[in-house]
Amino acid sequence: MKNVEIGSKAVIGNNFHAGSFTVIEDDVVIGDNVSVGNNVYIANGARIADGVKIYSSAQISIEPHDLGYKGEPTTCEIGEGTVIKELATLCRGTVGKNGSRSKSVVGKNCYIMNFSHVAHDNIIGDNVIMTNSANCGGHVVLGKHVNIGALTGIHQFVHVGDYCMVGTCIKVVKDVPPYIMVSREPSRFIGLNKVGLKRKGFSAEQIENISRAYDFIYGTEYNVSDAVEKIKSELELTEEVNNILNFISNSKRGIIR
Asked: Where do the domains of the chain lie?
């Protein structure tokens, strides 16, 4: 490792490799079998698990893009086996109004492609793919097995449910319930993520139950609150259907139409 600057207090695991001109600050913890490319900046607060790969010129745990942030110690956690590609930027958390310190989290086995941005206080679930130049505003939550298309922007505080496919070159300003595809401009529901669900082992029966729930929600006959009541009264409340209902119940921005 030539021309690598590592803070004296940084904790580095076994079998670590870093390319030239990489900088690692003091308050950093890196697990075993981590590989870091050239010109990478790993700032204070980074917590990097085993088997992570970070490619050239990525920036990890940088200061939040938040005018209220005053340099307080917060963290950015990256789960096992995640890949961070060239020039991606990941921010650490901020501090809440009550003084509580937050964190940004990227789950296990994620794939964060070139120029993607994970903003402060994001919670990114396991097995998420963010395609080139996908960008998340602050406090975004992405569920597990979510795929975000290239050049798509996710508005701050938006939640995207599990197993969603979000299209390319769109803006998402409302919450996206689980298991669906979103595309077009303005962005909207375009159907179930059937191919993704099949690939993840969902049975035909599970997919049919999900489809019946969304027939109520995205049909023309009911508004969302009435659709929820119809689902509760007429459908079997399977794990997947309950996941949809809980997501809608907890949505603060309202769901995408």
From this structure: 5-157, 199-250
